[in-house]
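User: Predict the complex.
Assistant: Input components as received:
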Amino acid sequence: MTRRLGLSVLAACLLAASLAGCFGGDPPHRVLRVLASAELADMAPILAELREQTGVELVLDLTGTVDAANALTPGAYHHDLAWLSSDRYFRLKLARSGATGAPPLRTSIMTSPVAVGVTPAVARSLRETAPDHQVSWADLADGAAAGTLRFAMADPRHANSGLAALVGVATAAAGTGDVLRPEDVTCDRLRGFFAGHRQAADDSAALVEQFVTHRADLDGIVDYESALLALNASGRLPEPLEIIHPQDGMIASDYPLLLLDPARREAYDTAVNWLRTPAVQRKIMERTLRRPVDPTVARDPRLAVDVGNALYFPDQQEVIDLLLQRYDDPSLREPTRVIFVLDFSGSMRGPRIAALRDAFAALGGGDRTEQGKFGRFYVGEQFTVVRFGGRVLDEHDLVMRQPGDLDTLRSWLRVDRFDDGTAIWSALRHAYDRAAALRRDHPQQAVSIVLMTDGENNAGLGIDRVLRDLPASVRTFAIAYGEADRADLDRVARAGGGFAVDADASSLLTAFKEIRGC
Amino acid sequence: MPNGSTIAVEPTLAVRSAATPFFRRGRFLWPFAAALACVVAGLAALAPAGHLLLPFQPTEVLQGRMASKGDYFEDPEVKRLLMGHHLQVNVTRMGSHDAAVLDTADADLVFTSGEASGNQLIDRRQQAQPPQFAKAYYPFTSFVVLATYREYAETLSSRGIATPQGGADGSLYYTLHLDKFLPALEAPDNTWNDLGLGRFGLSNGNRVVAHTPNICSANSAATYLGMLAYMKNGREVVTADGAEALARTIQPLVRSQGLPTADLFQPYLTLEGKSSAPVVVIYEHQFLSYQLHQKETTGEVDRSRVLLYPDPSFLVHPQLIALNSKADGLARLVATDPALRNRALEMGFRQLAPDAATKVEPLEGYLQSKGVQVPEFDSRTRGSLPDPLILEKMIDVAGSCRR
């Protein structure tokens, strides 16, 4: 009996050993601490499978991507890995830190472009007005400036989706087709776009919550395509958003997994290899709606759409810093005041006044070029129009609350009363006084003066008097037209921190556009 | 029966048959047979993979640093062949320059994509006191080429900048006339739309650019810079005189792409590739390997993805550098073993004067045998890169590299 038992045990042991040899034992449990972008919280079920199948557990420490990159200091990492939606900001930071060693090993796991989700009604109207019905960043800026597109976008100082959107829209606004350079950021062409920016958050996931909470006051949200598709699938919206991939380009994120501690290489390789297997890639796509990096994985129909061309991401930290500084500037949230000082002397009669009226119609939204859409008057912007001849003829104030308000502004320019004299410097002085009063009442508000004249000063104050009393903090721009004295205008504009433009060299509209946003 | 008599009853002894050995008994036999079947099945699975006796022999694990040549050591078939020699290579990917110049204490071998970086490493090790082991092998070669999509190639073709090879529609290869491509890159604010991409059903307002990996660390990017420099220098090899000034004029052409991506080829194969980087500087073997695989798995090559062969052409010689004797054994094997050399061919690599004994057929013959179009070359129009030290200086200037 004992012997029989012994034999059975022996057979069972042999069988067990054989099976163990065939199927392997449980893999050892290894824990990797990962500094991760907040939106990767949605990877939890897949990471549970990773642990089950490989023994590698990724413990995610979630935060905004830009914050994460700022927390990563070469040589003083507090995590084994970092998993960011994009490591571009980190790479720029690394380059600027002067680090000369090998950058952390990186493996892209999945991708998702930044896109714009809008309500179907807004999508329809955007498409109707866009050339070829292909919506670009310029069309979105146009809608935001006109007040018809109010959107949520994450804070680019903390979140990659916000930073990618900011770089994208700024690159499109520069309109060079080239990578954004520091000089492209000097003039702020994004005020119209930001007029529509109503909600922000520190990361992409929090932004979605903000959008749902404030849905009644919003028309759209700028976020990862995956976040927008997931929101649509969640059933939390009465009707799904239409997802627009701006025709002129976008910036995609490729979710690299970075190895910060080389001693954890084996576990890192295990995790990366598992995450990149076709079956897992498919699972990631199905569950998170991010795009697989494995070209063999057949696409979910929602991800089969063309994402538009990638815009080039700056390779200089300086450009990003400038963009973020602009975003950080509280005056960006304050509507600006522009004081137009317009020459209505007799020489402006005829084609010149017609050109001026056309220019204002174009700036009010009539200019359908890309640059026109970025540079147009925007909701909240405040205007003062001073007409002058041999003296100040009249002065009007306007706050643009809706596109129809611009009809009022245009009506002021429709008057056909011209004066014989040209008191340029007296009119400018009048504008300075007005600006000083505005600054006193609203110290946060940016006030600029745009002086347009087609002649030489023949009445009122002399130029030296004006130059002597120049107020600080009010930028002055000048548009020289017809017989205007270019040198004098240039002197005054430069002294006022701005510049002069010759409208004869291009057109009055181009001259106005060159000044817009600077 | 009389009293007192006893009848002795013969004891009846049950005659038992001789004991069956335990190994022939059913209770043992069934479980054991199952176990045995399992073992046999395991062996059967291991045998064709060449792993049969591996559990009984130690495997040498080598640490290798390389860029795109990691494709070779990460190929399952190469891994299997090496395993047959009890060798395994763990690949750490990094740009060729980084692979060669960073501290190599934890590496057994470095596989640079070109010679310039490799030579620096060899010089450094030979000049060390005492000199350190460094032995270079050149197992195969490849051309630096530009991979793109049909619409972009046709756009270039419509402008006379590229010409399809073989004259037929659907050619996989185009000859890229660098003398005409250079002005298209240099024209200020010249976008793909300006070149007429719209005629082929696409729109792209981005400036005409070929995407490269980081010029400060990648050999393909360095070679591309060298290509442009050679053309700008009137098809003359750039010498020390004026090299930096020349690099400054090329800087906008290689930096317009903005922050470079580390890996360009994998994204190029995805659905989003055409959006993210429509023209990428890669090695010929990467593209051919992809097309051979497509042909094998689907029966057709992918005609939406095509290759631009620069004219003049730039051939690079990847350098497999052994940093110790065990790596030397591996490197020699890669360079001489017929099976490994054959696998390199199957992966689209070209081979320098194949050893007569190995009887490895040239790449053209292999492509032909697989029914994949053979690229054409005018072997007389080879471009030349400057001296490695001059090229390095140019890279530093054009890429504003920190060293």
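Chain A touches chain B through 55 residues (CB under 8 Å).
Let me know if you want any component modeled separately.
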